[in-house]
């Protein structure tokens, strides 16, 4: 299985990704809204909470994947928004096909650590983090390019008015999830009681998400966890000065653009 997974991963990063992307984006509707993010940015947690708010049922990996599916699997998704609109997950950089989206962005340094751990669990990352980080920053570890280019594409779409984009920072959603979700519901034009949001947050804590993963194991579950800690700023305890400086070189301007003011070397 690991060998097959490696082959698929290699193919996904090849030029074949572009025609596959086109195929996956067929049959979109004007009222569809996207839950977009770079991988390992909190998209799953967000979709679990959105599911409970919009549907009023407890979320599981099975029903969330069905109702708020990955791009390419939207054919069977039920409309949960006005005008038969659906919520669809995407990890793609901004495309003109995206007219309205919630864009969840997480600090590149925490994303790099999470993506490394996830790919190690899947057998896709055999190197250590020291050699993995430069590859991550150059956009060589997954099919979605670099974190920098990805965020830049969505920020440009927002700032230049190419699409309606609600920017949601992962650290703010972690510290104030109810406020963040209330903003999203307003963006989606869905009236909702505050208590409904409160229940969705309580039902999807890290501990409860891990319990749900035990019931429905994911690809990374066999050798690790798909649901990790969702740490904010965990990079400060893990990065060397050299690694922090490398991130600043590649992504410092974008981190500043989205409001992550702290872009500095660690003083150890």
The secondary structure category is alpha/beta
Task: Give the oligomeric state of the chains in this entry, treating copies of one chain as homo and distinct chains as hetero.
Answer: single chain
Following the backbone from N to C, one meets helices and strands in this order, namely HHEHHEEHHHEHHHHHH
Largest sheet: 4 strands, parallel
Report how far the terminal alpha carbons are from each other: 42 Å
Number of strands: 4
Low-confidence stretches: 263-268
Question: In DSSP terms, counting alpha (H) and pi (I) runs of 4 or more, how many helices?
Answer: 13
Proportion of β residues?
5-15%
Rg over C-alpha atoms, rounded to the nearest angstrom: 18 Å
Shape: globular
Helix content: 40-55%
Describe the structure.
- The structure is a single chain.
- By secondary structure, the protein is of the alpha/beta class.
- 50% of the residues lie in helices and 8% in strands.
- It contains 13 helices and 4 strands.
- A 4-stranded parallel beta sheet has the order 2-1-3-4, sandwiched between helices.
- α3 packs across α10, α6 runs parallel beside α13 (241-257) and α9 (177-187) packs across α10.
- The longest helix is centred in the last third of the chain and has 17 residues, at 241-257.
- The chain is globular, with a radius of gyration of 18 Å.
- The N and C termini lie far apart (42 Å).
List the helices and strands and how they pair.
Layout: H1 2-12, H2 17-24, E1 33-37, H3 43-55, H4 61-67, E2 87-90, E3 100-105, H5 108-122, H6 129-137, H7 147-159, E4 164-169, H8 170-175, H9 177-187, H10 194-202, H11 206-215, H12 235-238, H13 241-257
Parallel strand pairs: 1-2, 1-3, 3-4
